[in-house]
Batch of 2 targets.
Target 1
Amino acid sequence: MSRKPVIAGNWKMHLTKRKASSLARAVAAAQGSVESRRSVVFPSFVHLDHVRRNLRNSNVVLGAQNCWCKKEGAFTGEVSPYMLRDMGVQMVLIGHSERRHVLGESDALISDKVKVALKAKLEVMLCIGETREEREASLTFEVLARQLKALKVVKPAQTDRVSVAYEPVWAIGTGLTATPQMAQQAHAETRRLVAQLLGEETAALIPILYGGSVNPGNAAELLSQPDVDGALVGGASLKIEDFEPILAAAPTA
Ligand code: PGA
């Protein structure tokens, strides 16, 4: 069963309106009419509309970095997944480690976000991953199992809108990368856990991306692992000179 590689750029809280627009055009040009991989960009909320316009006529997927867990209401400063959908956003990142560890998001909140985002007809990329302390205490698989429970809310008809990004927290923005073997081991376990939650057939189809200091030098080897179906790229997604070779490293199946 073949899964199409997904290469995603998480722009975090970077770029200006002008720089985000020109990076979007460059990603669209690099993606071209290639159909053997999906490319996704996650700009800041305030740049979404500009980026959307610059991606017009391209097949690059527009994603948001977060959303709130309700359709609407008195939630000052938050953004509903329905608003994102209405803006032309197709995908949303949920549970990124910076939201879990810097903003204090709980597993329960993340699960509610997954539920509402799927109801709003968005695609969801759920981020999971252990901290350095958890890895050193041999708790990695336990952490993955706990965080993946957020997928319990996924209904059978929604499974084709779900992907998972395994991002070991100690590898994010640090220059430390999991070895391809470490990534493969965590991805295989993630797939096994997804099978327990959503069934074998779904687990075989769900893309599992690796994230954490992916760069042009390590992308190809990480992406060659059997259960690594793509990359979620932070720092190296901000310059097209770095992101383009990562896009090109996606196997063509
Ligand atoms: P990084 O970030 O590539 O800069 O490590 C990855 C991420 O946070 O998604």
Target 2
Amino acid sequence: MNDVMNLDRDVVPEGRNYIGGVFQQAGDGEVIGVYDPARDAELTTIPRSKAADVDQAAAAAKAAFEGPWGRTTVAERADLLDAIADEIEREIDDFALLESLDNGKPFSLARSVDIPRVISNFRFFAGAVRHQETGAHPMDGDAINYTLRRPVGVFGLITPWNLPLYLLSWKVAPALAMGNTLVAKPSEVTPLTAMKLAEVMHKVGVPAGVFNLVHGYGHEVGQAMVAHPDIKGISFTGGTATGHRVAATAAPMFKKLSLELGGKNPTIVFEDCDFDETVKGVARAAFANQGQICLCGSRIFVQREIYERFKTALVEEVNKRVPGNPQDPATNFGALVSQAHLAKVESYIDLAKKEGGVILCGGERPEMHGEFAKGAFLKPTLIDGLAYDSRTATEEIFGPVATIHPFDTPEDAVEMANAVRYGLAGSVWTQDIKTGHRVAAALESGMVWVNTWLLRDLRVPFGGMKDSGVGREGGRFSLEFYSESRNVCVKL
Ligand code: NAD
């Protein structure tokens, strides 16, 4: 661990595209700086690719799909996914350090959650594809239908900065398992672990052109991928406004499309909850990864009977999160992803004050010293006194800022919780099993947890409703999305 604290910067790779099995710069040689947000220091550069680089990657992916890769067996592809997982596991400390440097998240979080999840994504989809079943529909002895599942072709994968490799692997693993070839574009803000994944792909012998990585800006590389005629499907995770643009470009081309978008998730606490467990769970739901998880519960509704007591306990729990050096294993609260994002989050704290909010804790930058003096740090912030339908309480902030509101009845809680354009996730905290089930079912959310948060089973459908997205990924939902189902009807 001490090595990690001493920061072996050799671990930071030179950012390059990976196209047709070759590491290379952008065609025109332009680059983008990549920053460590905790130190406000440049780490390295990545290529600022353009449409011509996407053309090259799409051509490599198409040729690979039409070549021997298209004839690989399920067993061969599953073995390859396991080999990728094994290699990442061997290099887990370097992966976790890179993720922490690039994103500002605590090394301890990347080492215990992000990278282990990457490994399990590859292993899980290796197992899922080995064991997948397809349907048969007999017609009373006259005929039998059966379903074949075939790869789609070239898939474009576009991912955000908050869980960089975790979310990319969630797409890469099932897409490769089903036999597609890929053009991937990680966020230009956090591209480094994707870069290292390309090195792993190369090392374990993924055939040239099967996995291509193109770095660059969304409006240049991402847009060119979505518009490319040879890229037959797009899996996008990012903001709702970007998802809108992606859908507008892809829909007229009838591409397969999965959109995992923004959220503003409710946490509902009933007076009969297990008080101490709930305080800890609610704080974690609001502030894990500095509140930069799409599933974070940033609108906290607490039944009036326990409102004051809960608020006091929650502030105490939140204040245990102390911003510090993300690479120090003892740090439990890191930096935000960038200066630009910090400015956006702070603008919402200003808005909250204008809307009449009372800052219960945080609301300002911590005093940081030495190399961290200019880092993108913000104290975890809890705000009381706002209307549940105020802008602060309904717009996605995507940072360490949560609002807290009292409610009286379960019906009130559901109405307040649903009063947003988003519908990604939520959590309900109660010891009454009936209340738990009823409120969970009434929430307009793709995913609801009862008495827990972010407990993930990779088999379940993952995705949002309303403006939080279209489609579901996870388990068989991913295998279906990354393939074309074809029915064959045989007359007997
Ligand atoms: P973003 O929408 O700005 O960027 C996401 C990705 O899209 C990046 O790789 C970006 O370069 C690319 N992009 C930007 N413009 C594009 C365009 N015109 N065409 C194609 N690609 C384009 O999002 P972000 O700021 O990186 O991430 C934060 C957002 O992601 C939040 O809204 C968060 O809720 C959401 N998110 C959702 C989920 C989910 O599963 N629903 C998970 C994580 C993050």
